[in-house]
Amino acid sequence: AVVSTQSTGGEGTSGQIARTIAAHKALMGMNAADHGMMKQVVDYEEQKKLVMDRISIWQDVQAKKETKKLEHEKLMKEKAERKLKAEENKAAKENEPNLANKKKKKNNGAPSAVEGTVHLDYGYLIQKYGPDVSETTTQLEEKTSEGCFQFRCVLAVQGFTFESTSTSKKGSRNQAVSLAHAAFAVNPPPVVNEKKRKIPNKRLRSEGEDFKPIEPVEFQDKLAEKCWNFITEQTAAIVPQLKVRRNVVVIVKVEGADELENCEIVSFGNGTLVIKKENMTCDGNVINDCTAESLALRAFRRYLLDQLELCLTGKSSIYTKDRVGGKCSIKKSVKFYLYTNSCPMGDCRAVGTQPPRQPMETNTAEDPAVKTEVKSEVKPEPMETGDSPAKPMKPKNWIPRRTCKVEDLGKITYFMTSTEFGSSETTHQFSEEKSHCIVSPSDKLAVRQVCGVQGSVLFSLSNPVYISHYFINRSFNETSVSRALHQRMSGANIPTGKDAPVQPQFTKVTWKATRLVEKRTKWALVWAKNHEVEILFTPRGMQYHKDKQEDVQSALQGDLTQYLAPSEYCTRALFTACVNVCKRSKKNYPQKYSVAKTANTRYRQLKTSLLSHFKDSGLGEWAVNPCKPDY
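Given the sequence above, the corresponding structure tokens read:
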């Protein structure tokens, strides 16, 4: 708009100033003469403060936007990296052959070693302390200062409660899980699940290189480790093909308390097979039974004979001379234990499908405690402790895959013949076509437990000697072992008195030197104190020459006859050694082994009574050796 200076009465030194003043006065509704009286209507300080406040608010908003932008970029970068890694893993799996992945087993069926740290997440919590684990997550009404929602998670594990709050459901649960892991690391709950070892479908024969035996704590485990280490030391010079320790039996002399320092190994045997039927002889130069139990007892009798000679000559021995009778007796402070890494074959491993009935009349037949014990071998009840409720646990007694009939429990069994090995490692009731004439180790140990392990040859010099404690590793079932080696003989006519049979004890051994059982072999080992280790070829029952071991591979592929000789532990050698001791000690002795074996001694009376009891109780008959001794 154009403002006229005349209408407004503007004045000034220049026209431009006059026009400006006139325009201002016209707008303000004031006369040009009064322009000096104008007041300032705008507060510049207040305007400045308002502008600065606006600038501060703008700066805060820009900072938040920048922070949010950086966080978004970081999340997108991490997402891209995870996606790239997933694509790389997928491509690697597609390029790797599926068959190789399926059959690749580096650890022999055992659980793989954990690489790195274990993630203590919710899944691991359920695996280790489950299944009694539950969680409840709820949304709270209160929000954070930034306006975010809040969630509370209540985690219950076996009655223990852990709470946590976070801005997400997953975050609250993870915090509660972390609290639970931290608490249980100090005070574990009643139930802690251990990861089960993966068992291979087939029993592998090779031993894993990474296997390490557990550190023994109990006496029986320490004794087992000592026996195994002793055998390893004694057989160090023997080639591996000839010392496969599938079944080991060790006789231990204990003088005093059950401490490892008081234990001394006096004999051991290793083997699982018996001689071929066609190789049995009547001259006593072969060993018919090459199982570990029989060989260990043969070597033990050789040790006893050495101790008898020391006693009769007035030297230090485990024997003492009797005042009457002319015999020797074991010192009261001396006892003998038997350790084996495998339960004896035969009735010791027989487990019924239902509670068995006693085949003979005994004083404990109506005892309810005995019935409960027998019943537990089929359905073991869960164990219960004072700190935790009852829960399923591994049964103490071993239960085989194949159980036998109730009426067959306690019966005498025999080895089965085999064309390749001479016999199998299984025992059954007698069969004319398939059975060997040698009874199972369980039956032989049962007779020895009544008549004494010294045998008929040494009975003229020694009073009965018994095994007082059995320590058994694999296939241990206390009910079956107790029945086989003690209970089924309780009805026999056994005299009581000074030399009455002792009731043995049976203990489970958990320590083992190898993870898996070694393979079957035709070779066996036998050793007695102060004698050398002998290698036996079981199909022939004879000793393999020690000076020929350097050429083992060629010898095994050809005829072994030229490398075999009678063993020092065969019956004829033991009888000859006994006669020599009697001659040196001026003791009476039988002229022939056949006379000593059939003489009407207390040993023969006990054995006849026991075998008659087996027959009358329906437990079977003792086989007659077709090869009668003629020496």
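Residues 1-12, 197-208, 355-395 have pLDDT under 50 and may be disordered. Try to locate this feature in the token string yourself.
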